[in-house]
Specification:
- The complex is a heterodimer.
- By secondary structure, chain A is mostly helical.
- Chain A is built from 16 helices and no strands.
- Chain A has a domain of 177 residues: MetI-like fold.
- In chain B, strand 14 and strand 15 form a beta hairpin.
- In chain B, helix 3 packs across helix 4, helix 13 runs parallel beside helix 15 and helix 15 runs parallel beside helix 16.
- Classes of the chains: A mainly alpha, B alpha/beta.
């Protein structure tokens, strides 16, 4: 197990380098740079801009230097000082912007995952064990409805219903008075009152997919001869189900757990925007639209790094749960 | 005066049905038999005869949607009472207390019948845990004892391993250990050796017999292999399409069968016990004529470092049938594929004499040369289901090689009809899809496809292994008929010595990638020289209960094979 881990970590190094280069290239791809966007904004507002001023700003931000120098500056800042650069758009350090939102992103992703799993796994099991029963058809129908319904539409609809008919404040993760308040029981309660909406809106999509995956996996396993063997031993049906087929059917799901990391950062941008959640999703969208290079680059880099770490975690989880992988 | 003891297990008028969309499928229809203490009852029949469902009905573990519709399964309990298992709730506590404790079962596929993610010791231990109050320590001790009983080497290490770390034979031993966990009084073995090599099969049969003697178990042994029946059974029940055709002591079944079906079944097995009867064959070319195929020092090592074919040399004369026999993993299939360049051997030559007398090396042939060689050298595969495209009609499948050879239109159509007649299929069926054909018919389609371009050499890889015995000899007869008509040569790859004996002029015995013995079939079988050949031959069950072969078996234990 340890050599396996060390080897995987070693593989991650060149991947990380490649990813950082690609992230940088992606930021550079659109024509123009941040200043071009700024000029366009100013021009749209009717302001005249002197070309000398643009040149000065370009020099100040290092935008006049060769690409590789820009890349090198960017990377060395991140690696040596944890400095992700300044956001042009917000005028604040990128790291500050990201960290303040990352906590909520992860919390929301984790809660969504819990929600989806807690509901999808039992329903998936039921739907497989009672295949073609009324319960299976209902579960399948609801799953497909949610799968087909875009999450942001669901979010809009829920927000409308909640505020119009129940008078609850919607949007964000807190009521106005608690946004900047220190943590307290009251704030936690307020948080819980708000968080279920986005958790539900975001979770239903993956919920539906999970039900279908769980059902399909389990149906495959239920037909395997080892189930009959266990039954012939005298095991009762419920323990048999949990101990053998469900255990094995869960493997692919467990191995997908690592994907929660990158998903947390870029998760459901639309829902986050619609519900004005203080997560990293809307930040990324805004940064890309505004060509806020350091912010966008840092977020893309973060997502990539988390993808690599997430994959590593997936591999480790799979190796832990499935001896066939471990011993190969 | 004491009352006569009831039989250990009495099945009366058992009916197990499967409701389907097209009505009820009567998998087991009015089956009755009794099983006495310490005896072995063999239930035989071909695939689809309901033998397996009968066995599963006893424990009420018939697959969905099958269910017991009628009849009684009376088990004499240790306290003298009799319980009708058919009346119990299949999910209830009572039947669960019998499963694994009084009646245990082992299955055909030792790999898929065990969980791949649980340790061996855990799976065996579970059977102990379910029926006995034991501590962790006692459970482990019991499992170790069981592993020792089934002769798994190094039980202390084996107990913490996973099933996929074991060979097929070892896995089946684990299954048996699991079944023995609570000292059952009845052991039901559902084709326990079908997936195993003959030598491994002999070991497992041996083990079951010894355990039966020491534990006093009664055994119900389900098999399609009459040889196995003759070796182990006391009583035999012959099933066909859900019904009992005949039952009685093993000797009577083999030597005085009453029922027509039983006679056919025994007949087709016994027929394969000797060489095919005299047939009119075109004389083989004189021995001094250069051979059709001459393989020299062919070797193939796979990317993982495993040498599958190791310095193989052999010759095949025009019109001859050469058998390649060996166990799974011996490299016989790989060798066959090398000859068609499905795999590329690293070393050696395979000189093929073309129709016009030119000699070409198959192993170094270029793309174009290979294509024209493959027209004269075809292959028939083992799996008659997997090797036919389900989306093409049979006519299209057979026509495919013809089209590649440039024959189209009416000529092609006529040729397809002719080919189908040749292999004994009505040409009117050419518009049907493969799924509409039975296993034997599909194999005929495979043969028709192989002979469509008038090849001179056919490599048949386990061509009859997936077929029931009664079909097997028909298929071999067909292949010999075609050989006589078309002057074909065969390389016939099989693990089944009886098929080789029936069909082949000469035989090469393969073991671990090497050819350990070559010779005239009669000579190799009558007076085997290599120790491995002797072991292989003595492991084949003899379909004559008066003359069991396995009890005087010759065991060949190579140095490194004990692991």
């Amino acid at each position: 197990m340890l050599p396996f881990l060390a080897r995987r970590l070693l593989y991650a190094v060149p991947t990380l380098f490649a990813v950082s280069v690609i992230a940088f290239v992606i930021i550079q791809l659109p024509p123009g740079d941040y200043l071009t966007t700024l000029m366009a904004d100013w021009a749209a507002q009717g302001g005249a801009v002197e070309s000398g001023m643009v040149e000065a700003m370009r020099e100040r931000y290092g935008l006049d230097q060769p690409i590789y120098v820009q890349y090198f500056k960017w990377m060395s800042g991140i690696l040596l000082q944890g400095d992700f650069g300044m956001s042009f758009e917000y005028g604040r350090p990128v790291s500050e912007l990201i960290w303040s939102r990352l906590g909520f992103s992860f919390l929301l992703a984790f809660l969504t995952l819990l929600f989806a799993w807690a509901i999808a796994v039992p329903i998936g099991i039921l739907s497989a064990v009672r295949q073609y029963s009324v319960a299976d058809y209902i579960a399948t129908f609801i799953a497909f409805v949610f799968l087909a319904l875009p999450n942001f539409v669901l979010a809009l609809g829920m927000m409308y219903v909640m505020s119009a008919y129940f008078g609850q404040s919607v949007g964000g993760l807190f009521s106005a008075e608690y946004v900047d308040a220190p943590w307290s029981l009251a704030r936690l309660w307020d948080f819980l009152k708000h968080v279920w909406l986005p958790v539900f809106a975001i979770g239903t999509g993956s919920l539906a997919a999970l039900i279908r995956i769980m059902r399909a996996n389990l149906l495959d396993e239920l037909r395997k001869p080892y189930v009959t063997t266990a039954r012939a031993k005298g095991l009762d049906e419920f323990r048999l189900l949990m101990r053998y087929p469900v255990r094995i059917a869960l493997n692919p799901l467990i191995s997908a757990l690592g994907w929660i990391l990158p998903a947390a950062v870029s998760m459901e941008i639309l829902v986050s925007v619609v519900m004005s959640l203080p997560t990293t999703g809307p930040l990324l969208l805004r940064a890309l639209l505004a060509q806020d290079m350091y912010l966008a680059g840092s977020l893309i880099l973060l997502i990539s790094v988390l993808t690599i770490i997430g994959t590593l975690i997936s591999d480790i989880l799979l190796a832990l749960t499935d001896p066939r992988i471990r011993l190969q | 005066m004491t009352r006569p003891q009831p039989p250990l297990l009495a099945v009366r008028n058992l009916q197990t049905f499967f409701p389907t969309r097209h009505g009820t499928f009567r998998a087991v229809d009015d089956v009755s038999f009794t099983l006495e203490r310490g005896r072995t009852l063999a239930i035989v029949g071909e695939s689809g005869s309901g033998k397996s469902v009968t066995a599963r009905s006893i424990l009420q573990i018939v697959d969905h949607p099958g269910r017991i519709e009628g009849g009684a399964i009376e088990l004499a309990r240790e306290d003298g009472t009799v319980t009708d298992l058919a009346k119990l709730d299949p999910r209830g506590r009572e039947i669960r207390a019998i499963r694994g404790k009084e009646i245990a079962m082992i299955f055909q596929e030792p790999m898929s019948s065990l969980s791949p993610v649980h340790r061996v010791g855990d799976q065996i231990g579970e059977a102990v845990r379910l029926h006995r109050k034991v501590t962790r320590r006692e459970e482990r001790d019991r499992v170790l004892e069981l592993l020792r009983q089934v002769e798994i080497p190094d039980p202390e290490t084996a107990i913490d391993r996973y099933t996929f770390e074991f060979s097929g034979g070892m896995r089946q031993r684990v299954m048996i250990a699991m079944a023995l966990a609570c000292d059952p009084r009845v052991l039901i073995a559902d084709e326990p050796t079908t997936a195993l090599d003959v030598t491994t099969q002999a070991e497992i049969l041996d083990l079951i017999r010894r355990l039966q003697d020491s534990h006093g178990m009664a055994v119900i042994f389900i098999t399609h292999d009459m040889g196995v029946v003759a070796e182990i059974a006391d009583e035999v029940l012959v099933m066909f399409r859900g019904k009992v055709r005949e039952s009685g002591p093993v000797d009577a079944i083999f030597h005085a069968p009453q029922d027509g079906y039983t006679r056919d079944l025994i007949g087709s097995v016994v027929k394969l016990e000797q060489k095919a009867g005299a047939r009119v064959r075109p004389a083989l070319p004189p021995a001094d004529q250069p051979p059709l195929l001459k393989v020299e020092n062919m070797s193939l090592t796979f990317g993982n470092g495993k040498t599958a074919v190791d310095d193989v040399s052999l010759t095949l004369r025009e019109g001859e049938t050469l058998g390649i026999v060996g166990e799974s993993g011996s490299g016989k299939t790989t060798m066959g594929r090398c000859l068609l360049r499905i795999y590329d051997p690293q070393q050696g030559r395979a000189e093929f004499r073309r129709a016009d007398g030119r000699v070409e090396d198959v192993l170094s042939a270029g793309r174009h040369g290979l294509k024209s060689i493959r027209r004269e050298m075809r292959m028939i595969f083992q799996d008659p289901v997997g090797s036919l495209s389900p989306r093409k009609t049979v006519g299209e499948i057979i026509a495919e090689p013809l089209k590649l050879a440039g024959i189209r239109g009416r000529a092609c159509e006529e040729e397809v009809c002719h080919l189908m007649e040749q292999v004994g299929l009505p040409p009117a069926w050419r518009e049907r899809y493969p799924h509409a054909f039975s296993g034997g018919q599909r194999q005929r389609i495979g043969i028709a496809r192989a002979i469509s371009v008038k090849p001179r050499l056919i490599i048949a890889d386990e061509a009859t292994s997936a077929l029931d015995v009664s079909l097997r000899s028909q298929m071999l007869d067909l292949m010999m008929k075609l050989q006589d008509e078309m002057g074909l040569s065969y390389i016939f790859i099989s693990h089944d010595m009886s098929v080789i004996r029936y069909m082949c002029d000469r035989v090469a015995v393969m073991y671990r990638g090497r050819i350990v013995e070559t010779g005239e079939t009669g000579q190799v079988i009558g007076a085997p020289q290599a120790p491995y050949t002797r072991a292989l031959l003595s492991a084949i069950p003899n379909p004559d209960p008066r003359n069991p072969r396995l009890r005087a078996r010759f065991r060949h234990v190579p140095e490194a094979a004990l692991a």
